[in-house]
Structures are given as C-alpha cells and as structure tokens.
Amino acid sequence: MKISGVDIRPGNIIEYETGIWRAVKIQHTQPGKGGAYMQVEMKNLIDGRKNNVRFRSAETVERVRLDTKDFVFLYAEGDQLTFMDEVNYEQISLPRDLLGDAAAFLQDGMKVVLELYDERPISVQLPDTIEAMIVEADAVVKGQTASSSFKPAILDNGVRVMVPPHIGAGTKIVVDVYEQTYVRRAD
After folding, report:
1. Distance between CA atoms of 27 and 48, rounded to whole angstroms?
2. In a shared domain, residues 26 and 74
C-alpha cells in the first residue's frame, strides 16, 4: 500500500531502498520557503542500521504489512533465545540482539508476538509491562520523602530502574519493558 511521505507515523513499517524499515521518530517541518517535509528516523529491521530521511509530500513510500504469530518464550542458551509456536509447537531460535534491551525482561512461559516478513522473523514484541521483584534498593535519604524524588533499585533480572522512595527490596513492582521505568506497585 503506497502512502505519502508526510503520512508516515512512528511504528509504521515501510520499504525504502530495497530494505524494510520501522519509523522510530518523526518530525513534521514546514520551512518558510519550499514545501513541507517529514523528517523520519528509521531503523532497518533486517540489519539494525539507523537512517534519517526527509520525505516531501509528493513522495510516496510502500507501507509493509507484517504477519504476526503468537509464540511462547521457552529458554535462553548463550546468545540464542528459543520460542515455541502456540499452535503447532514448532520451536524457533533467534539471536538475543533482535530484542535489544528488552531481552532482559523475558520470563519463562511469557507470551510474545513475532513479526514475520516473507516467513522470516524480524522482530519480537514483548508485553508492554511485566512484574518484577526488587532485589536491591538504596536507603531513603532523610528529608527527600516530601519531594517527588526517585532512587535507584536493581530488579531480579539485573536491570536498574528508578523507584519512589517508599519502595524497598523484596517489593514486587510493574515495570515498563521498553522504557525500563517504574509504573506502579504490583498487586
């Protein structure tokens, strides 16, 4: 499906210069002289390269639809992650760097969505938030409880996040997987 260059939105998958790219950030610019354009920061889904491209309103790009399939995370072995298809129980191993920083949040039995292009997995989507246990948290500094200050804490998966002062070690919290930030205390 062809779309105008100024209609690109973050998260769109487009075909550009024989590659498959995801729009990460966009900035619409309307200079005093000349026509408006869209400055798009893109990431190549095959090799991970990043690129900044200007698209004018007259330019069109091919928007790509990816197939999605539900999988379950089984285990990690070295830098390979193994997932199982929920329908036919087929297993697939993918490199850890396909997930980037989000790989630290994988948990046994976690349901994920694989995005496929021509039957080839190109990205893995984890749930937006997960529950994690705090194993280490700094002590509260007296006098800081009145302001909205945060303190560093380490989760059971080794990821460091900033938490409110009243949260201590042994507390279960909800964490945003992609922003790696504290959301709320778990129920």
Report:
1. 21
2. no
